[in-house]
Amino acid sequence: MKSLTMICALIVGIFAGGVRAEQGADEQLIALLQGFEQLQGGFVQTQYGPDEEAAVATSRGTFRLLKPRYFSWRIEDPDRQLVLADGEFIWHHDLDLETVTRRPLSSQDAVSPLQVLGGDTDILRSDFDISVTGKGRFRLQPTAGNPGFRELTLIFSDSTVSGMEIVDNLGQRLFIELVDVQTTPVLRPADFNFTPPAGADLFFHDQ
């Protein structure tokens, strides 16, 4: 479940747009976040332990995003998992274990990376210290709330995000490389509908 938390934290992370050199780091990032409405692509995510000496795990998959409340993060290798937001609930489907977990999308009372990456400008301005640490690199450090991470870095290439790093509260780092990013796919809310498969064990945390 720890890995799932980190995965959820990093769902929805691809951006495009222009910024002005005279803007502060927070306004530059906000401008980038406002440069898209929907997107899709693939990812390769690698998890490292606190010592950073070697990768603990690597997984691959695809993602889709439709602002403001829809996303899909599908891990295809080495195991098969789906994390999906349908506008009302967040679903986690472990295809190998045949389990489905559901939580209300609005039930999260902590500041989440999903809100940050989704472009919640009020939260970005009030709850994070944002700095530029290199060309195309934005580091976000929480100053309020109770996020599940210590530090989040967004990495841009040619005004489009190409990677993300998150350091959790135990010092473990997750790096995600985003590939084949499309910023103008044709997505609809219906594309994020989810029905639990027959025979799966269901765990609904909203009842």
From TrEMBL:
Alphabetically ordered keywords of this record: Chaperone, Periplasm, Protein transport, Signal, Transport
InterPro entries: LolA/LolB/LppX, OM_lipoprot_carrier_LolA-like, OM_lipoprot_carrier_LolA_Pbac
GO-annotated biological processes: lipoprotein localization to outer membrane; lipoprotein transport
Main location: periplasm
Gene3D superfamilies named among the record's database cross-references: Lipoprotein localisation LolA/LolB/LppX
GO CC aspect terms: outer membrane-bounded periplasmic space
Entry's family note: Belongs to the LolA family.
HAMAP family named in the record: LolA (MF_00240)
Its biological purpose: Participates in the translocation of lipoproteins from the inner membrane to the outer membrane. Only forms a complex with a lipoprotein if the residue after the N-terminal Cys is not an aspartate (The Asp acts as a targeting signal to indicate that the lipoprotein should stay in the inner membrane).
Protein name as annotated: Outer-membrane lipoprotein carrier protein
Organism: Pseudohalioglobus sediminis
Lineage: Bacteria, Pseudomonadati, Pseudomonadota, Gammaproteobacteria, Cellvibrionales
